[in-house]
Amino acid sequence: MKTYDIAAIGGDGIGPEVIEAGIEVLQALAKADGGLGFRFERFPWSSQLYLDEGHYIPPGGLERLRTFDAIFFGAVGSRKVPDHVSLWGLRLPICQGFDQYANVRPARVLPGVKSPLANGKDIDWVVIRENSEGEYAGMGGRSHRGLPIEVGTEVAVFTRAGVERIHRFAFELARKRARRHLTLVTKSNAQRFGMVMWDEIFLEVAKDYPDVEHDRELVDAMTTRMVLKPATIDVMVATNLHADILSDLAAALSGSLGIAPTANLNPERAFPSMFEPIHGSAFDIAGKGIANPVATFWTAAMMLEHLGEMVASTRLMKAVEKVTANGMHTPDLGGGATTAQVTGAVIAAL
Ligand code: IPM
Ligand code: MG
Question: In sequence order, what are the residues at sequence separation of 6 or more whose Cβ sits closer than 8 angstroms to the Cβ of residue 4?
Fold first, then answer.
């Protein structure tokens, strides 16, 4: 029997609720499978810990995390801590510290879910987000604070190594899909240094993938294409910030932010990868037991895929789709079901 060590970080808001639901479902899957096991260790790293002890990640925390096969992450963000402090305190140190440079965000309208688009059934996309540099590199500064001459800079950083590896990853992923099509998202008309390099390197890498069709779209035009011509898109690769924005749009067009999953991958497997629902901490509904656990279940399926457990991954997704098709929906999808009811239904389907 293969047993995986998974670090579970519920974090803030609805994070712990959906991660516990995910653990329940994964344990049920293991039981149904027989050849598969999970050992979960829970880490209470959260904004509450920060308020109590002054840190999200305790000293030595990353070194401990490094020994796990994967990280199952809920959300970070609290009304009591400025967003840039919580983000740079927990999620980004893991993503950047473990060089999880490839962020994969699939979007698809699950059975029984209604897209706000008339042609929503055409959505079957993967957004690939550069996850280690770009606009999130953390470069910049402020000086002359409070004075009329105060200045703030936010520098987007693009390195040849960073750009090349994400484009290569995108081509590799596109190559494995039926349509084998990749769209380069850019803004090289207005931003003439990093973005032009981003495009140039894409075209260099493209030469190694003659079997993958590619095209190029400016990020603003990409939003309209996603809404008006969803069928023309398969895989897209975009910078850290552009893909952040496009993936929220992709999630909304697929029916709800409550179903969208993500994988923060270190493709070389030098470090563990991290799997999380996209939705965030949603403190307005935290503690009510109505958070949609589907994003976390889909995220768990991505984690299984990364671990090489393809059969278990497909089995989990089939169970989730059976439940969404039956109309058992949480309020974000217009239903009245609770987190526990959806979780129970998925376990029954397994
Ligand atoms: C995401 C989120 C984060 C991001 C937030 C929580 C800072 O929106 O994962 O898409 O912008 O990266
Ligand atoms: Mg986002």
Answer: 36, 37, 38, 39, 69, 70, 307
